[in-house]
Amino acid sequence: MSQSERFVLATRYRLVSELGQGANGTVWRGHDELLDRPVAIKELRLPHELSEDDRVVFYRRTLREARAPAQLRTHNIVEVYDVVIEQGRPWIVMEMIEAPNLEQLIVRSGPLPPDRVAHIGRSLLDALGTAHKAGIVHRDLKPSNVLLDGDRVVLTDFGLAFSSGSASLTKTGHFMGSPAYVAPEVAAGEKATPRSDLWSLGATLYAALEGRPPFERENVMATLSALATESTPPPQNAGALAPIITGLLEKNPTRRLSHARAADRLERVLAGPRSGRGRRSPTPRYRMMVVIALIGATVASCGIGATALIVGMMREKPGASPSASTSGTVDPPVRGTPPPGVTASTLAVRARTSGCRIFVAMPGDVITVLTDATLTIGEVRKYDQSLLNAVIYDASACDVWVNGRQQPLGNPGQRKSYNLNRTGGG
């Protein structure tokens, strides 16, 4: 048995083998002997030049910032199990994920195709959205902190780097952070914000597409100089992702692409191959086929013939129903708080996340499509028609009220259908 295998943290976490080292410490493969499960353990390394007071601050910040992501229960953020102090330094016990990181994949396979990068970007936006809503800024988003476990994209190292929220040159001349992925305002000494994380996301996606980050140079100072003085080089392999990447890499944070708009544009890119060979607006015939697939059961139960359905598709209303109302906000709505006018509506839908996609149609002699869209966070659509058919594509992403009554929240990815009338539920 090696010396490391004999070392046990907090009487339960046994070190098994070293997985890798970085600027902030060492990551170990470990085993939780109490729960009999594998774990990843990060040993945080304190800079030697720290004073005793700085070491106390480091410990406090580590404990505070490790507790925060431990509360983030989401598929796209690594789960933090525990934080212990052993041998005079902190150790972070986390979920063990046997998967390569994005940096390793880029080195091994070269630039990734845009469709895969779009999937990675959308997953990372979900992770950042969860963290930002909890008041947590990552501050060090980069390819080596993104694990790719099949289709699962996992963001790691939330708030665990030694940083007070602004990456800057230390007294000894070492850059605290990742200069190739840091936002310009943070490199200039300003406090890191959610908008800073969006820049880092843009630089990470740029690297995935081009094989290198946009401002990386031969050393830290040259990288920082390029970041401060040079224009962002346009990506060459981005395809439909190009405006998203350039929007995220806007140097002025007030003009940078917002989380909601980035999510919406990535959704459009991801939906492109399924939308009539990449056309944004499908033809009436294609739209008819989609609607037949979605509400075929409803059509059969109502006795509507194929001819009437085709006529209905040709009469589809552009945009939202006149009876629908919208309101937008980047903050998630509080569940249980109904928007105004819900009690008078047959159906009301409010987007909890950017994945709230809905299809709403009014049956009759012809079928009239009222809405087929992805709502922005906080956006509300209300319908007062007496008969409605609706499909919610992700029941966890939308709050739904039927005849004034809020419906139970579904599971992620769960599709729900409603056949509604003024007096009955769905």
From TrEMBL:
The keyword ATP-binding applies. Keywords: ATP-binding, Kinase, Membrane, Nucleotide-binding, Serine/threonine-protein kinase, Transferase, Transmembrane, Transmembrane helix. It comes from the Bacteria. Its EC number is 2.7.11.1. Residues 13-270 form the Protein kinase domain. ATP binds at K42. It is an enzyme of class 2 (transferase). The chain crosses the membrane at residues 288-311. One of its GO terms (molecular function) is protein serine/threonine kinase activity. Pfam families: Pkinase. PROSITE patterns: PROTEIN_KINASE_ATP, PROTEIN_KINASE_DOM, PROTEIN_KINASE_ST. Belongs to the protein kinase superfamily. NEK Ser/Thr protein kinase family. NIMA subfamily. PANTHER family: SERINE/THREONINE-PROTEIN KINASE NEK, SERINE_THREONINE-PROTEIN KINASE NEK2. This is non-specific serine/threonine protein kinase. It comes from Actinomadura graeca.
